[in-house]
Amino acid sequence: MRAPTAAAGGLVAAAAVMAVLAFSTGGDGDDRAAAPTATATSAPTAGAAPAGDGLDVWAAQGCGSCHALAAANAHGEIGPDLDANLDGMPAAYIEESIVAPGKVAAAGYSTGMMPGDYGARIAPEDLDRLVAFLRANAGR
């Protein structure tokens, strides 16, 4: 029997994430159930930026399903805790972490877990708002 490769490990991890998402959205194939909404895991806490300042992009992209961020009341454990990893980081670093997540991994994490298509998936103005939201709220 061959030893598992890093690619196989990534596939196993992706399957686990998909299973978690299926169970958390009802798993009935109804895309409306899978659409991110403002819930206890994505609602802002006191002092957080208003939705127009990037929280809506955070919620629409499902960032809180993988990442923890207190300002978004998100407790994801699959990806890095953004309060700890983005506090004080420049906007360029945060943007690159979103659109080219395979370039640098946060300490204790490997590359390849975060989808690499956010640069195409998120409109430039929404990306700017998301980066500003993260920069203003990480570590708060």
Main attributes of the structure:
disordered N terminus, two-stranded antiparallel ribbon, Cytochrome Bc1 Complex, Chain D, domain 2, globular, 140 residues, mainly alpha, single chain, 3% strand
How would you describe this structure to a colleague?
The structure is a single chain. With 140 residues, the protein is mainly α. The protein folds into two domains: 1-35; 36-137, Orthogonal Bundle (Cytochrome Bc1 Complex, Chain D, domain 2). 44% of the residues lie in helices and 3% in strands. The protein has seven helices and two strands; from the N terminus they run αααββαααα. The protein has helices spanning 6-24, 31-34, 55-61, 82-86, 91-99, 118-121, 124-137, and strands spanning 68-69, 74-75. Strands 1-2 form a two-stranded antiparallel sheet. Helix 3 (55-61) packs across helix 7. The longest helix is centred in the N-terminal third of the chain and has 19 residues, at 6-24. The protein is globular, with a radius of gyration of 15 Å. The termini are far apart. Mean pLDDT is 74; it is low at 1-49.
